[in-house]
From TrEMBL:
Protein name as annotated: Cytochrome P450 2F3-like
Signal peptide: 1-25
Cross-referenced SUPFAM superfamilies: Cytochrome P450
Pfam families per UniProt: p450 (PF00067)
Function of the molecule: Cytochromes P450 are a group of heme-thiolate monooxygenases. In liver microsomes, this enzyme is involved in an NADPH-dependent electron transport pathway. It oxidizes a variety of structurally unrelated compounds, including steroids, fatty acids, and xenobiotics.
TM segment ranges: none
GO cellular component, one term: endoplasmic reticulum membrane
Binding sites annotated in the UniProt record for heme: C441
Main subcellular location: endoplasmic reticulum
Required co-factors: heme
Family membership noted in the UniProt record: Belongs to the cytochrome P450 family.
Origin superkingdom: Eukaryota
Amino acid sequence: MELSTATLLLLALALTSLAWLLAGAQRGRSGGRRLPPGPRPLPLLGNLLQLDTKHMIQSLTALAARYGPVFMVHLGSQPIVVLCGYRTVKEALVDQAEVFAGRGDLPVVYRFTQGNGIAFSNGDKWRVLRRFAMQTLRGFGMGKRSLEAPIQEEARCLVGELNGTQAAPFDPTFLLGCAVSNVICSVVFGERFEYTDHGFLAFLGVMNQNFLLLSSVWGQLYNLFPGLLRWLPGPHNRIFANFEQLRRFVAKQVERHRLALDPNFPQDFIDCFLLRMEQEKQDPQSHFHMETLVMTTHNLFFAGTESTSTTLRYGLLILMKYPEIQAKVHEEIDRVIGQDRRPSVEDRSCMPYTDAVIHEIQRFSDIIPLGIPHAVTCDTVFQGYLLPKGTNVMPVLGTVLKDPTQFRNPGAFDPSHFLDERGGFQRHDAFMAFSAGKRICLGEALARMELFLFFTTLLQRFVFKPLCHPEQIDLTPQVSGLGNLPPPYKCCAVPR
């Protein structure tokens, strides 16, 4: 008897479902060790029905309450082990740093990077590129006092731009983005851009849009079903058009550097990379080639601009909601720095309240809540569960920064989380805003310096006021996915 096409399709689906269920029954044991528990996935959909893509953190936290701090979910057909809470994430990323040092799959980004660059490479390529980047960036002042002067100068330029608003309402997004991006520009490109440069503004606009799209439902859906969404129309396609625009901008800068390169006097990161490319051009195993340079430069820009500028933007919104906290920062600035000199990194040790506020802004805003996926580099047993080599791991940093066992009032904005009983600044091991372990943010030292100098310079000169009553300000993220982005707003920078 000949079967109809519909019948064959139904039969195939039934067999697929049966195979999936049998695999699920077997996945609980492997070599005498259990894989982590988790909700049973559906064929093709995985655990999509148990996950709210608009509120992923809440979904994962609910699953952790049911299955424990180590559990497995299927994002589409991709299994991933989720780690929640400070103790579990620390045990993985810090105590077993080498084992969890791999970079996991993130299809929406891999389609662009193809495993090139620092952030999304693995193995020897990652180790070589990271070591080179750290040494080179340190040579140009990353994390050192020598980079303080360029940040101070950029902060001065930003103050000039804010003075130009004449206390009228404005959107701080581009001004903050320009200031922060110019700092990384000075290290990578060897120059800064004017805030009116149309090419520079377009570059920042594309980066802002991509961070929003990557964090949106569409960005998350692409990671769930890359094979399907690759061929479907939708806002997710804008991500890849933007990536290509960013690549062309960076490639143009690289070509300009190549033509003007003086081998005896490298001026910036790109020059140093080009020289290394020349040195290793005969080595077929070299990781230094043009595509890696473009992707590495893009990684540095994206990480060095978006996270810090978004933190500043979220921070100003938080301080407007809590004007009494803003007033206490103003008081400490006036007492320690005054109005006649510009803030310095040395001032931080004398300003515990301001330092605590900045740390609490980072903790509360939780800019990268899900972290970037990791992968285990070898078969390992973790908290009694077997994790085979290559297993994708998601350390949910948001559950660390808001772990109730580590912070008294994790859901509230409370600078006392970082103050001791005498009002001194108190470091906290659970502060993982820059992640932790081998994959900790390469630019942590720079970001810490920028946040302190930009915040103190701005609050030395201005009172930031909202266009509504402070109690009406909603701090709920505009989108929450790869990143937590603050809701769009305008404010007034009133000179003090």
